[in-house]
Amino acid sequence: MAIEVRPLTGAEIGAAIDDLAGLRIAVFADFPYLYAGDPAYERDYLREFAAAPDAVLVAAFDGARIVGAATASPMAAQKAEFRAPFEARGIDTATLFYFGESVLLADYRGRGIGHAFFDHREARARDCGAGAATFAAVIRPADHPARPAGYRPLDAFWTGRGYAPVPGLVTELAWQEHGEPDESPKPMQYWMRRL
After folding, report:
1. Closest by alpha carbon to 87, among 144, 79, 184?
2. Which of 115, 34, 11 is nearest to 68 (CA)?
3. Distance (Å) of CA 58 to CA 24, 62, 70, 123, 181
4. Ramachandran assignment for 82, one of left (phi > 0), alpha (psi -120 to 50 degrees), beta (any other)
5. What is the pLDDT of residues 55-88, one digit of tens each?
6. The whole model's pTM is what?
7. Helix axis angle, 11-28 relative to 39-50, nearest 10°?
8. Tens digit of pLDDT for each residue in 140-187?
């Protein structure tokens, strides 16, 4: 069966929150995020995202099942810790669209779905008048003990889409990793491209 990738907005996002929460927990459990997910936290976080004006959830469907998803909304609607590095540099967050997670089950990778996620989110950003799109990726050292053999970061994919890391534009976000007793801050590098 062909995979259908399409944007969801408004009430459609709310109907997909449980599916996206499960995907985030499953996909982010792996390196480089190593996230020890919590379903209740996920649902609260995603409801807050869905309430943002102009938010979009791009979902990949295998029949009726959501097997991947990517989110985006105006940067001005994000939490202060997301906006702060831009504001500290005098970058107007009203001109930016923030791309949140992009999660896809392993069996569906390599089929162009990631490109479709970016295509739909970039189109939404342009429709909303954004001048640039940005996202943050966790920074992990090359010798991290949990790095699996043969791991390939997504840098080449992002660069191929026209994104580049912005030197010095780093924030910290906290989450609990597998094996950690509590949350700890992780450095996140912002990538950006003009639209």
Report:
1. 79
2. 115
3. 14, 13, 5, 11, 33
4. alpha
5. 999 999 999 999 999 999 999 998 888 899 999 9
6. 0.93
7. 140
8. 999 999 999 989 999 999 999 999 999 999 999 899 999 899 999 999
